[in-house]
Design brief:
This protein is of the alpha+beta class. It has 2 domains: about 15-160, OB fold (Dihydrolipoamide Acetyltransferase, E2P) (Beta Barrel); about 185-330 and about 390-500, Bira Bifunctional Protein, Domain 2 (BirA Bifunctional Protein, domain 2, 2-Layer Sandwich). The chain contains 16 helices and 19 strands. It has helices spanning about 5-15, 25-40, 55-65, 105-110, 110-120, 170-175, 175-180, 185-205, 245-255, 290-310, 335-340, 350-360, 370-385, 435-450, 465-470, 485-490; strands spanning about 70-85, 90-95, 100-105, 125-135, 140-150, 210, 215, 230, 235-240, 260-265, 280-290, 315-320, 320-325, 330-335, 390-400, 405-410, 410-420, 425-430, 475-480. Helix 8 packs across helix 16, helix 12 packs parallel to helix 13 (about 370-385) and helix 14 runs antiparallel to helix 15 (about 465-470).
Amino acid sequence: MLRYEKLPSLIAHRSVLMPSFVDTLDDLEKDRYEKVMRLRERGVEPYPLRSKRSHTIADARALFEKGEDVGVVTLVGRITANRWTGKITFADIRDGTGRIQLFLRQDNLGEETYKQFLKDFDLGDFVQVTGTLFKTKTGELTVQVAEIEMLAKAIAPMPEKFHGLQDKETRYRQRYLDLMVNEDVRQVFRTRQRVLTAMRAYLDRNGFIEVETPALQPLYGGALAKPFITYHNELERNLYLRIADELYLKRLLVGMFERVYEISKDFRNEGVDATHLPEFTMMECYQAFGDLSDMMQVVEDIFVECAMAAQAKLQITYGEHQVDLTPPFARVAMRDAILQVTGVDIYVDDTFDALNARIQEKHLRVEPQMSWGKLVEKLFGAYVEPTLIAPTFIIDFPTDISPFAKKKPGDARVTERFEIYVAGAEYGNAFTELNDPEDQWLRFVEQQANKARGDAEAQQMDDDYVQALKHGLPPTGGLGMGLDRLVMLLTNQHSIRDVVLYPQLRN
């Protein structure tokens, strides 16, 4: 048994063998670390247990502007700029609500304290200041500092230019630096939260119940996408990260909930580009006794609510486009949209061979596909989607790429399905949900045939979901909307990485 009296010598011996924290620092960080040690030598803890704050910077500013007698304030924040000349220093600090200028003078702080401030305080340090507010001759609201304390000594320096960390790799991989120095980036993520709150508030207000469904699923389904696969040791089985919430949410309507929704992370093991990430945020909602037209109303309402929350207006700018989000949105059949742009009539060329021949004949560059519906989808995506600038519902999607949507009455080739397009991109997908268990079973069988032909995105057979439908799913409208893309639109961002705090990147 190890005796307690031997521990000090063992620890001392171990410290010789193990690298020290200082060994991990570069020269500039070592210089700042020396300041940490100097503070401690003077009995000042550079990382104190607690801080005090009487006001946020925004609150202090608002009270002063109202003419109220604010008195002595205690503010906290990170030092982001300083300008010193002799016995006077001007500095800026920022908290989560804004920026304010500090006025530090040797006569107020005392000679020793002022010298220690100049010697040991750096840009990036978190500090606590106490003093009174006044305005300079230039009209700048300023704190005349009577006391200043260290709250967290920054050993690593801030990026060189406070107003311009531009390198994409650094911004995404070290998001804390991006947020630290780019106010516009912080504003994007504040807007994201307002959009999310507005979406949730609308659904709550309209009788939808927020629920949670499994992220780890024994079968993946609800979308045409490749899954991530993992293995559960105790259960001795493969599990899949969900690609969609759809089939679990619709089971709840079988169980007598009438309106449900979920805002969650979905995962798809596929390509990464300006609008796709393997991990993304999706809202899905389902309304019993509803249909496609009800979902169109929900989409229009959500766009209005979220645009007002983000920008307080419905006329927005996205890149070079001016977009008006005022309902009602246009409704165009996929056939008509393709015919207008390409001259190809998919209802005339309504088999794979016929449509593929027309595409080859016109020298259109569309990748080879496994089915007529996928060929239609690729043709639409390549030529029509970029032209849809004003909000537009594209309706009547091919049945073989819509395995959970009801067929359109009188035309089994297409379904009661729409996608919403704005500024050349898709923002949501909705159906009049298929609730006939026999039809659903046959669609699953067709998907298995597609899988056997090499379609990696085909649906798996989900016998339990078919069993649920046997118990009766009422007429239902369903909708899925990508939150990330909606935030891109409402913040004028053109990469999904710019609206996701921690996007997946290559090594």
